[in-house]
């Protein structure tokens, strides 16, 4: 069984003993509380100078906030060293939930990001939006045309995007727009059904095939058969309907379509979900990426028009990687990667009042320490111990006169209050965590 040495300061020693003692460890350990009150003030050179030679451990863990070159400790002891988490309450994650996963990151689903109303934008504006989407993870840029009429500068837009290395699709039913985009090098045409089936045979680009406007899945399959007969490549899209307006039936269409066409490419547009619901897009995108992964959907089309759908491309990029890993490894998409846990936080532990009062007894200076639990903000130094849930009330009791110190405390107390309100972890002088945002 492996044996580890955990380095800490006097202030955190009791909490570290409690944390490790509550773990179901498969290793033995010792704790070395060095003669320093605050573990974060111990840099690697100082720690190395206070460690004896001849130690017998498989690994030495030092506080996560300790600065400096960790090789100084390894050279002194001959033992591999590693920084622990910034908060010792996260140590259990270090030995289970938060281990970096091998093979995480690949994906199969391609993201099509639509520039809605692209026909109203200048070429420079289109390129700028496309660059933003590409940086967010998009594989294909879709140019949104008008509901009726032509996209006047579509050739220029397609050529500019292609020259910048983008794959391009055009979203239009206008015949002239489609033909111009195809001549300019568009890769995909959205969309084709029996109303404009003849144009599918005139373009080089792959077409997205949708049901007839007054038809269902049968019309889509009938149209697919027509394109199969002439050897034209296509992507199937049975169309995802909004929640409360046929969503479940549309999911059923996707399921049946995949059963009938196990080898055909299928696209799913998510805008009808993320744009047409009074809810943040993040969880919706994660869920639908999982649905798409199970159905082997090849393309997800998304938009970022309404405020709560901003960032959808980046969210889908994170989600497709998470779901791909979970699916390939036959496991739920849980405790794998926390990029999509944004408004709330991954699991974390908190100090209780008894632990914090124990810390206070070890403090020898007047610097304020700030902690939170699920309801209260705690602020203490060697002389005072204050708690409450209103930053202003706590601040007023401190009677701070120095403006710089007042600004610092106000900022920290407000951040602590926000963390409690959102159910997030607060760590003094650390920004709140917002996932992949």
Key features of this structure:
TIM Barrel; 15 strands; alpha/beta; 4-stranded parallel sheet; elongated; 16% strand; 8-stranded parallel sheet; 437 residues
Short description:
The chain has 16 helices and 15 strands. It is α/β, with parallel strands linked by helices and 437 residues long.
How is the topology of this model organized?
Layout: E1 3-9, H1 13-22, E2 28-34, H2 44-49, E3 59-62, H3 71-77, E4 81-83, H4 91-94, E5 110-115, H5 123-136, E6 140-144, H6 154-163, E7 167-171, H7 175-184, E8 188-192, H8 197-200, E9 206-209, H9 217-230, E10 234-236, H10 247-260, E11 267-269, H11 271-274, H12 281-294, E12 299-302, H13 312-328, H14 353-362, E13 369-372, E14 377-380, E15 385-388, H15 391-398, H16 403-422
Parallel strand pairs: 1-2, 1-3, 3-4, 5-6, 5-12, 6-7, 7-8, 8-9, 9-10, 11-12
Antiparallel strand pairs: 13-14, 14-15
Helix pairs in contact: 5-6, 6-7, 12-13, 15-16
Predict the CATH topology of the largest domain.
TIM Barrel
Any idea what the shape is? Answer: elongated
Spatial order of the strands in the main sheet? 10-9-8-7-6-5-12-11
Q: Total number of β-strand segments?
A: 15
| Annotation field: number of helices | 16
Total individual domains = 3
Query: How far apart are the termini?
Result: 40 Å
């Amino acid at each position: 069984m492996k044996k580890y040495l955990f380095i800490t300061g006097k202030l955190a020693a009791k909490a570290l003993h409690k944390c490790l003692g509550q773990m179901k460890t498969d290793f033995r350990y010792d704790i070395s509380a060095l003669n320093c009150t605050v573990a974060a003030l111990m840099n690697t050179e100082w720690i190395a100078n206070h460690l004896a030679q001849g130690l017998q451990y498989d690994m030495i863990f030092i506080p996560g906030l300790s600065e400096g070159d960790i090789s100084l400790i390894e050279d002194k002891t001959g033992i591999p060293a590693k920084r622990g988490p910034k908060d010792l309450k996260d140590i259990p994650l270090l030995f289970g939930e938060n281990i970096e996963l091998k093979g995480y990151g690949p994906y199969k689903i391609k993201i099509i990001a639509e520039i809605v109303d692209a026909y109203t934008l200048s070429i420079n504006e289109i390129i700028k939006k496309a660059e933003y989407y590409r940086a967010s993870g998009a594989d294909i840029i879709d140019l949104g045309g008008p509901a009726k009429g032509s996209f006047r500068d579509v050739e220029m837009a397609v050529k500019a995007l292609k020259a910048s290395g983008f794959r391009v699709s055009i979203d239009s039913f206008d015949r002239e727009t489609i033909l111009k985009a195809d001549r300019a090098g568009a890769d995909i045409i959205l969309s084709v059904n029996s109303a404009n089936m003849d144009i599918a045979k005139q373009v080089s680009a792959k077409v997205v095939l949708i049901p007839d406007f007054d038809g269902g899945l049968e019309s889509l399959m009938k149209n697919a058969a027509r394109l199969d007969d002439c050897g034209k490549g296509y992507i199937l899209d049975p169309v995802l309907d909004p929640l409360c307006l046929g969503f479940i039936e549309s999911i059923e269409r996707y399921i049946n379509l995949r059963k009938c066409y196990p080898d055909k490419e299928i696209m799913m547009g998510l805008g009808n979900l993320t744009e047409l619901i009074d809810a943040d897009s993040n969880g919706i995108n994660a869920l639908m990426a999982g649905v798409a992964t199970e159905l082997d959907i090849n393309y997800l089309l998304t938009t970022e028009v309404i405020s709560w759908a901003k960032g959808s491309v980046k969210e889908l990029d994170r989600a497709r990687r998470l779901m791909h890993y979970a699916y390939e490894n036959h496991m739920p998409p849980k405790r794998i990667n926390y990029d999509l846990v944004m408004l709330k936080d991954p699991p974390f532990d908190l100090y209780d009042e008894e632990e914090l009062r124990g810390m206070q007894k070890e403090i020898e200076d007047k610097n304020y320490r700030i902690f939170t639990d699920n309801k209260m903000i705690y602020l203490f130094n060697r002389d005072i111990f204050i708690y409450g849930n209103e930053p202003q009330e706590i601040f007023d009791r401190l009677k701070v006169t120095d403006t710089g110190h007042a600004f610092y405390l106000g900022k920290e107390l407000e951040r602590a209050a926000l963390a409690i309100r959102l159910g997030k972890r607060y760590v003094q002088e650390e920004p709140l965590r917002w996932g992949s945002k």
